[in-house]
Write a structure and sequence with these properties.
The chain is built from eight helices and four strands, in the order βαβααααααββα. With 215 residues, it is of the alpha+beta class. This is DsbA family protein.
Length: 215
């Protein structure tokens, strides 16, 4: 096969907040999908703090605490790294953060953020952006870019992909645990695109009986 015959990979835009364990599960599934389908994930940030900032009074105390300064810190550092060092660092830093926050159950502490920066070779000085609003507008713009594709009644992750007819197919989720691998990942991808691209289709849902499994 010549270079001109190599198929271009389909871009899959993925919006995440490092805090969300369900988005983390979906992101690991998408990395599996990259291995078995001709797709390439492009990583973008969104923020649960931004999503819920006008309804904090309606949330449980524990969730309000999570969406305070502690909730802003990881995503602020990711957006700062992206702005200073390019789009290609976004996914790498997300993987380092998510592994420590979720798989290692260390939480989104400043120490975890610092360790993640070191792991991917980014300067420790980026940690200062955890408390800085310098890139908050860029963060909000990225958040809005994702959420406007699916509406305000969802959370993270948001996925957007060109459909077979060239029209955008965007959706929240899927919410799944553990992350399917191999052909199971491929089947879920194919099925998700099938239902999400159906005109007038909006929702499939059932009660969660298990928490995230980071196997």
């Amino acid at each position: 096969m010549t270079d001109t015959q190599v198929r271009e990979k389909t871009p899959v835009d993925f919006w995440f907040d490092p805090l969300c364990p369900w988005a983390w599960m979906t992101s690991r599934w998408m990395l599996e999908v990259e291995k078995v389908r001709d797709v390439e994930v492009r990583w973008h940030v969104m923020s649960l703090a931004v999503l819920n900032e006008n309804k904090l009074d309606e949330l449980p105390e524990r969730y309000r605490e999570l969406l305070g300064p502690k909730g802003w810190a990881p995503v602020r550092v990711v957006i700062a790294a992206q702005q200073k060092f390019g789009e290609e660092v976004t996914g790498k830093l997300y993987t380092a953060l998510g592994t420590k926050i979720h798989n290692e159950d260390r939480g989104a502490t400043r120490e975890v953020i610092a360790d993640a920066l070191e792991e991917v070779g980014l300067p420790a000085e980026l940690l200062a952006y955890a408390d800085s609003d310098e890139y908050d507008q860029v963060l909000r713009d990225s958040h809005n870019d994702g959420i406007e594709r699916v509406g305000q009644e969802v959370g993270t992750p948001v996925i957007s992909v060109p459909g077979a007819d060239g029209e955008e197919v965007a959706f929240f989720g899927p919410v799944v645990t553990p992350a399917p691998r191999g052909e199971a990942a491929a089947r879920l991808w194919d099925g998700t695109l099938l239902v999400a691209s159906t005109p007038g289709f909006y929702e499939i849902k059932r009660t969660r009986t298990k928490g995230p499994s980071f196997e």
